[in-house]
Design goal:
Blueprint lengths: L10 E6 L4 H13 L3 E6 L15 E7 L1 H11 L6 E5 L14 H9 L4 E5 L2 E5 L2 E5 L2 E6 L11 E7 L2 E8 L2 E4 L7 H4 L12 E6 L10 E4 L4 E5 L3 E5 L4 E5 L5 E5 L4 E5 L6 H9 L21 H30 L5 H26 L4 E4 L3 E3 L6 E8 L1 H5 L6 E7 L5 E8 L4 E6 L4 E3 L2 E2 L13 E3 L6 H6 L6 E2 L4 H9 L5 E7 L1 H14 L2 E3 L16 E6 L4 H6 L10
Parallel strand pairs: 1-2, 1-3, 3-4, 19-21, 27-28, 27-29
Antiparallel strand pairs: 5-18, 6-7, 6-17, 8-11, 8-15, 9-10, 9-14, 11-12, 12-13, 14-17, 15-16, 19-20, 21-22, 22-23, 23-24, 24-25, 25-26, 29-31, 30-31
Helix pairs in contact: 6-7, 10-11
Length: about 575
């Protein structure tokens, strides 16, 4: 989950501890000012799906200490709602935004500038438990009835069916990276930097064997614990608990779904929290200052680099709900329901992209297939297709994309971004700086003979392009996304492309990427393809690796490929 997606939030649900009235009052004032629906819950109250409209547009907030934050993880995690923690407690490693910074942090979230980190969770089963936790599972002796009775337990531990050994002592903690700063740290376990860290750790508690040390395993590892005595099992400090009897098998592994934790620049950083709250002198707290965003009149190279980064972040964020809906579409039985899902995907993608772009560049124009044209007050216009390849999307085909381009008033694409959510490919380019697939530079082929080339085709109303070129080449393929077609030519996966009719939002980003890679794009007469901010006009497009282009055009019939 990407922080840019939070730019479209419409509602917030807050779990608040006692004595948080002042912070709640400020939260209510902020949500009212920004038109955000707010629901307040006490710690321990259940949150049902009927209480929020759409998890994709909802923010979870905890106000309290780490205990309240853990309640938030338990409540919001199953619904994939990201959580922002406001710390009104004392020793907090999870809720790290102070009440004074709450308004500014929430505004940063609403502008799509926050970051959402995945936090590994664990799943514990056995002894009547089936519980998820973000911190740890503690397996410890049952307290004796009298102080002089035995206070230790013996545990046999296996990882993926391999016997790890016998643990004698006060038990073990099986913790996530997030839980490394709690019970595991007090038992001399190592501290994990928790963001996007997908591991589990077995930490002995007051072991009677000097050779036993904390053991780090994969989040996919199956940890099996078999006690020789009755033991107490506690998940996240007792939020789930049970008594496991002698030889009752306990299973712990990484949970399928992480917790989604929202961080802003107003958070106290992880290492600062350790240094300040534990008195460690490894560093001093410092103010890193606000995140800088360059203005339109800054250095042109810096401006375009920022614009490209913002466009890529917007594309990834928009791709998340689109991919989720695509994964559900094959389960939809009726055509009308599928059409509704395609419409929702188009709308959500467009809403996220427009919100992110206009937050960062409020004076720029915006041209989108979904929302039309909005004129700006600068020379720049963003040209967007929020879902290119809707036919593929509607049929469960993975060949669809999100296309974002920045174009100047001379119709020159300056930035191009095409994101394929299903393959996680990000094609991107900046004018005069080359083209890339993810972080790898791309270039087209150098073939100049039709009989050695493979072609791509878009809409071909009467099949004339296919008839003219199928036998003259190594074949013609139709993939269903003009933006991806241009990227595949740019990356050398095909040699040329013909599109019968295109709009600027279909191809503006792909044109930037193709031209920066070294390819060429024209109309059927050889005139360079020009981007227009006109939602009605459509143009033919011939694109190639460059060396094949004249041969491609020479093979066109005199009347082009218009239906006869």
């Amino acid at each position: 989950m990407h922080g840019r997606r939070l730019a479209t939030l419409n509602e917030a649900i807050c779990i608040a501890s006692d004595e948080s009235e002042s912070a709640i009052d400020r939260l209510e004032s902020w949500t009212t000012t920004h038109g955000i629906d707010l629901t307040i819950k006490d710690v321990g109250e259940q949150i049902h799906e009927s209480e929020f409209q759409n998890a994709r547009e909802t923010l979870g907030i905890s106000i309290g200490g780490d205990g309240t934050f853990l309640e938030g993880v338990r409540s919001f995690g199953p619904n994939r709602i990201p959580l922002l923690g406001i710390n009104t407690g004392t020793l907090a490693f999870l809720a790290r935004t102070g009440p004074r910074d709450m308004d500014a942090a929430l505004t940063e979230v609403l502008r799509g500038r926050a970051t959402v980190h995945d936090r590994q969770q664990l799943q514990a089963t056995g002894a009547g438990l089936d519980a998820t936790g973000v911190n740890d599972v503690a397996i410890q002796p049952v307290p004796p009835e009298t102080p002089v009775d035995r206070k230790i337990c013996r545990l046999h531990v296996f990882v993926d069916n391999e016997y790890i050994g016998e643990y004698d002592g006060s038990g073990i903690a099986i913790n996530t990276p997030t839980g490394s700063t709690g019970l595991a740290l007090s038992a001399n376990g190592p501290v994990h930097f928790p963001n996007d860290n997908l591991t589990l750790q077995i930490t002995p508690l007051n072991t009677h064997t000097m050779g036993v040390r904390p053991l780090i395993v994969s989040q996919d590892a199956e940890i099996t614990v078999v006690p020789e005595n009755d033991v107490r099992v506690s998940v996240d400090g007792g939020r789930h608990h049970a008594i496991a009897e002698q030889e009752e098998v306990l299973q712990i592994t990484g949970a399928d779904r992480p917790a989604y934790i929202v961080r802003t620049r107003y958070d106290n950083g992880f290492m600062s929290a350790l240094a300040g709250k534990l008195g460690w002198e490894i560093r001093t707290a410092e103010d890193t200052g606000p995140r800088e965003y360059l203005s339109d009149d800054g250095d042109p190279e810096d401006f375009l680099a920022v614009a490209s980064r913002i466009a890529r972040e917007a594309a990834v964020s928009a791709g998340e709900p689109v991919k989720e809906l695509h994964g559900q579409i094959e389960q939809v039985e009726y055509k009308s329901d599928k059409a509704d899902m395609v419409t929702e995907a188009d709308y959500r993608s467009d809403q996220i992209i427009e919100t992110v772009i206009t937050n960062e560049f409020p004076n720029h124009g915006f041209c989108s297939e979904e929302s039309g044209v909005t004129e700006g007050t600068t020379e720049y216009t963003w040209v967007v297709d929020p879902l290119d390849g809707t036919g593929n999307f509607a049929h469960g085909n993975p060949n669809y994309s999100i296309s974002i381009s920045l174009v100047d008033d001379e119709a020159r694409p300056l930035v191009g971004v095409v994101h394929s959510p299903e393959t996680d490919e990000m094609f991107h380019a900046i004018r005069d700086r080359g083209a890339y697939r993810n972080d790898t530079p791309i270039a087209p082929t150098d073939r100049d003979r039709l009989d050695e080339s493979m072609l791509l085709s878009g809409y071909d109303p009467d099949g004339r392009f296919l008839r003219e070129f199928y036998h003259a080449t190594q074949g013609v393929r139709r993939l269903g996304s003009a933006a991806l077609n241009l990227c595949y030519v740019a990356a050398g996966s095909a040699d040329a492309l013909w599109e019968y009719d295109t709009c600027s939002w279909d191809v503006a980003a792909g044109l930037c990427i193709l031209r920066e890679a070294g390819g060429r794009a024209t109309d059927q007469t050889g005139q360079e393809y020009a981007v227009e901010f006109d939602t009605e006009t459509r143009h033919p497009l011939a694109a190639s690796n460059g060396t094949l282009h004249e041969t491609l055009l020479d093979h066109f019939p005199e009347d082009g490929f218009w239906p006869q």
